[in-house]
TrEMBL record:
Residues 265-478 form the Histidine kinase domain. Keywords: Cell membrane, Kinase, Membrane, Phosphoprotein, Transferase, Transmembrane, Transmembrane helix, Two-component regulatory system. Its EC number is 2.7.13.3. This is histidine kinase. PANTHER family: HISTIDINE KINASE, SENSOR HISTIDINE KINASE YKOH.
Length: 478
């Protein structure tokens, strides 16, 4: 299991379990909470009604007195109320009055008059000076529909202390069930939104962390594989600090290895020209004919130029390889670069009696480093000139290939031998020039390949079907 998935599952598990239990507590507490609030309201109303009904009970007119008449009038009213999206069109209270012995003497529904309620919990406790309440089925045996009964003592209006009866106020619990269900649904809906939002936050956090860790992982793998890669993007957290530490470590390790590698390469390439210079210098110390002396002196100059070219090319290649990524990037006009190179190469083309044709579109731009691209194309053009015979022809073409621009430099020379086609981009590998037999430093094409890589492109060299070699650069269009 990947780290990102572990982080997300851990975060979601913690938040989800916590939210589930919180929702469950709220949902389970809604029903008793609402019923407790209803009971409190019934207590207030029962005591108010008990005081109002006491005079009629003492006078013996509880069933046909003013209290009964007014209560009947009230129960016929239509409240036309809208309580929290639920309409209320009737009075749901039921009033029962018992005497001091617990016998029902008044029932607002006229059903239980004469029944002995002294054993019911609401009447039983109230007659003994305690708070009396009970919840019982509205229909005997049906536990789904219950009624809450709250009792209040009725005292003699003359002294306010003598208990003369009990008033019980009842209300069906199903009158508040819609409010309970609506509250539970609201809690579940909002809880679901909370869990969903938590999951989204967890997903974003996991993506953010995984992105940083994944970037470090890819960077470390690329470094271990020896691939030149840019350092991780700066972040103001521990992941950013780790990335910078890895980049610093990479630079120090690569710097040591890079110096060692290039010192070995340079010393290897310097041995041959230095041996030639030393041999020519020793011979010049002896008496020689003027023609031989001139030939040996020219050989020293030629080997010195070879050494200088090798060192310059090596430094240029080292610069682009060490960076690993482009230090500056801007819009580069490839058409203008190709025309400028053609103008610069005009004297060499004229001296070699070589014709140069430009096949360029009206406009072609890429994002990159203009100096490096010009150097790379200059190397390709130099190679084409070096391998072209007098009277030859070079074609520099620029055309669009999908999302890329392809720059091709084609000559009509001998082409690339089959044995060398897989090695032309190796460092210090070069082929003898036609006619002179001289070799270059072998660093030009590696430089071209590195510049192409820095620009997200690729360099290639192959033989053209119509003869000669064709070197190309494929660069993403800007």
């Amino acid at each position: 299991m990947r780290l990102g998935l572990k982080i997300f599952l851990g975060f979601f598990l913690i938040v989800g379990i916590a939210a589930f239990f919180v929702m469950r507590v709220f949902v389970n507490e809604v029903k008793p909470g609402v019923r407790q609030a209803m009971e409190s309201t019934l207590v207030d109303a029962a005591n108010v009604l008990a005081v109002m009904a006491a005079p009629d009970l003492k006078a013996g007119h509880i069933g046909d007195g003013d209290f009964a008449a007014r209560l009947a009038t009230a129960q016929r009213r239509d409240p036309k109320a809208m309580v929290w999206r639920f309409p209320k069109r009737s009075i749901d209270y039921r009033v029962t009055v018992t005497n001091a012995q617990g016998i029902v003497v008044y029932d607002s529904r006229g059903q239980d008059v004469g029944r002995d309620n002294s054993r019911w919990n609401d009447v039983y406790k109230t007659l003994r000076g305690e708070y009396g309440a009970r919840s019982s089925p509205e229909i005997p045996g049906d536990e789904t529909n219950t009624v809450m009964h709250v009792a209040a003592p009725m005292y003699d209006p003359a002294d306010g202390r003598t208990l003369i009866g009990v008033l019980t106020l009842s209300q069906p619990n199903d009158t508040i069930d819609p409010f309970i269900v609506a509250s539970q649904r609201a809690i579940i809906a909002r809880g679901s939104w909370l869990i969903g939002l938590s999951a989204l936050i967890g997903l974003l956090m996991t993506w953010w962390l995984s992105r940083g860790i994944g970037g470090l992982s890819r960077y470390a793998k690329a470094v271990s594989a020896g691939e030149p890669v840019p350092p991780p993007k700066r972040r103001r957290d521990e992941i950013g600090d780790l990335g910078q530490a890895l980049e610093t470590m990479r630079r120090k390790l690569e710097g040591k290895a890079y110096v060692e590698q290039y010192v070995q390469s340079l010393t290897h390439e310097m041995k041959s020209p230095l041996a030639a210079i030393r041999g020519a210098a020793e011979l010049l110390q002896e008496p020689l004919p003027e023609a031989d002396r001139q030939r040996f002196a020219a050989n020293i100059v030629q080997q010195e130029r070879r050494l200088t070219e090798t060192i310059d090319q090596l430094l240029r290649l080292a610069e682009v390889e060490q960076h690993g990524w482009l230090q500056r990037r801007s819009e580069v006009d490839l058409v203008a670069v190709c025309r400028a190179l053609a103008e610069d190469a005009a004297p060499r083309l004229q001296a070699g009696q070589i014709e140069l044709d430009l096949e360029l579109p009206a406009q072609a731009t890429v994002q990159g480093d203009a100096f490096l691209l010009r150097q790379a194309l200059s190397n390709l053009l130099d190679n084409a000139i070096a391998f072209s015979a007098p009277g030859g022809r070079i074609v520099v073409g620029l055309q669009r290939q999908g999302p890329n621009w392809r720059i091709a430099v084609r000559d009509n020379g001998p082409g690339v031998p089959e044995y060398a086609q897989q090695r032309v981009f190796e460092r210090f590998y070069s082929l003898a020039r036609p006619g002179s037999g001289q070799r270059s430093s072998g660093l030009g094409l590696p430089f071209v390949a590195e510049v192409a890589r820095l620009h997200g492109g690729v360099a290639a060299l192959h033989n053209h079907p119509e003869g000669g070699a064709e070197a190309s650069l494929l660069l993403p269009a800007g």
